[in-house]
Structure formats: structure tokens, C-alpha cells
Amino acid sequence: MVISVRTARVEDAPTLAAAERETARTPGLLRSLPSEISDAIFADRITALEAPGHKSRYIVAVDRYDAIVAGHALLEPMPLSQSAHIFRLTIVVHPGHTDRGIGRILMNDLIAWARQDLRVEKIELLVRATNERAIHLYRTCGFVEEGRLRRALKRVDDGAYVDDIAMALFTK
Question: Picking from 47-56, 89-98, 161-170, which range would have the lowest pLDDT averaged per residue?
């Protein structure tokens, strides 16, 4: 397996949305339910990011042998001027592609980009407290826990609550 990273394109939108819908079927992994994830939302977001002067980085991990998109990740700035130095991270390794180092490849790319971009001083993320695999990845990439949001999610399948852990990486 050889993974390459490239910028997300509008034609990736159906694949990215499908991967998030499938991931969302596992209770507690994503905030969204499968029915709340549409191809159009992804297409609109990618289109907006292609605008000149946009400050985000949206990437996909592609298996170079079969050209399958195996994961995607996004860094985008907080919307207000006084917090624009903080970029929010979203990362999803697509179902069937976990335990292959794809999350680390995506993280390494985004962290390297963030360290080169003077606007990015801090990367923030929220991760479900039950997602031990993701927490381990973030810690090994240098993220530290900044807090816990108790009962941040209420699962619709069984009514159980899941905490979110706020983590951050300072790039400057």
C-alpha cells in the first residue's frame, strides 16, 4: 500500500459523504447521524475552499494502486477575527482502511502545512472520549488534552451519553 495525499476536489464529495455516513453508523464516533450527511454539503464546502485566498486545507489520502480515497482531513480557521489563529481539525479514516497508518499520514501533512503557515498558531479538535484509537493518534502527534465536555453527545440508539475531549496542538 502506497498512500499519497492531495487536495480534495468537488468530485470527491460523494465518496467523502459516503465514508462519513458509514462512519456515523457506529454510535458515538461522529456528531452527525447518517441521515444528516449529504453529498451536496461536502460539494459546497469543497467549492468554498477552492475560492482564491481561502485559508483552509482540505486533503484526501489516496491509495495509489487502486486510486481509492481512504481518508480525508480538514483544517479551517475559526470564523471570528480574535480566534482566527486557531484552526479546527476534522479527520476521518474511511471504513475498511483503519489500522493502515492513514490517519497518521493525514495528520503529518496537516501539521507540516500548519507549521509553515504563519496564520496557524493552534490546532484544536474534539474527540469522543470512547474513541481510544483517535486519542492515541492525537497524543502521539503532540496534542494535549485541554478539557472534557461532559455528556456532549446523546446517542440516539440507546440514549447513552458520550463525553468529548478537547485537545490542542500549538504550532508556534
Answer: 47-56
Long-range Cβ contact pairs of 24-31 (< 8 A, separation 24 or more): 27/155, 27/156, 27/157, 27/158, 27/160, 28/128, 28/130, 28/131, 28/153, 28/155, 28/160, 28/162, 29/128, 29/131, 30/92, 31/153
Range of the domain at 122: 3-170
| pLDDT tens readout for residues 46-64 | 998 877 777 899 999 999 8
- How would you classify residue 169: left for phi > 0, otherwise alpha for psi between -120 and 50, otherwise beta? beta
Report CA torsion sign: 37, 39, 41, 47. Answer: positive
- Tell me the helices (H) and strands (E) count for the chain, helix number first: 4, 7
Number of structural domains found in the chain: 1
**145: domain CATH number?**
3.40.630.30
pTM exceeding the 0.85 threshold for the entire prediction: yes
C-alpha 126/C-alpha 131 separation (Å) is 11
User: By C-alpha distance, which of 93, 165, 83 is closest to 122?
Assistant: 83
* CB crowding 24-42: b at 16 or more within 10 Å, else e: beebbbbeeeeeebeeeeb
